[in-house]
Automatic annotation (TrEMBL):
This is Pyrroline-5-carboxylate reductase catalytic N-terminal domain-containing protein. GO terms for biological process: L-proline biosynthetic process. GO terms for molecular function: pyrroline-5-carboxylate reductase activity. Keywords: Amino-acid biosynthesis, Cytoplasm, Oxidoreductase, Proline biosynthesis. The keyword DNA repair does not apply. Pfam families: F420_oxidored. It comes from Fraxinus pennsylvanica.
Amino acid sequence: MAESIARGVVKSGLLPASQIRTAHLGYARRTAFESFGVKVLDHNSQVVEDSDVVILSVKPQVVKGVVLQLRSLLSEKQLLVSVVAGVQLKDLQEWAGHSRFIRVMPNTPAAVGNAASVISLGAAATEDDGQLISKLFGAIGKVWTANEKLFDAITGLSHILYRDEKMGLIGLF
């Protein structure tokens, strides 16, 4: 998902690749990001120290450990964004130690620029924060704002509609 987001943002012209940072140890992931100009660092801490907006795009089973590891580096000045499936804002905010957080759930078609993303703002996230993230995720598809309690239903429906569209059961005219 991180690569899809970065590619979309770069392709749309919202940010040059030189302003995007990520951390990966694996050669294949590093090469993929470097192929379109994203600076790849060795450690998540390096990304956090160099970023105004931090997008967490990790597996749900490791997100708590990642956020707790980075907690001492996170600042209220940074906007934190999670695209981690199934992890609620209240937990993310508790682990991070602050609530300027936005949760985003893009669906699989993000890889081809046709995502349907839903966002929910944390307690300290501003309307401007929401507009910024809507603009960034708009680079990979459509964006809606919703109450987080509706995320499971919304993302489930978007995956069903996409799957049906791929199977030819729903036509777009």
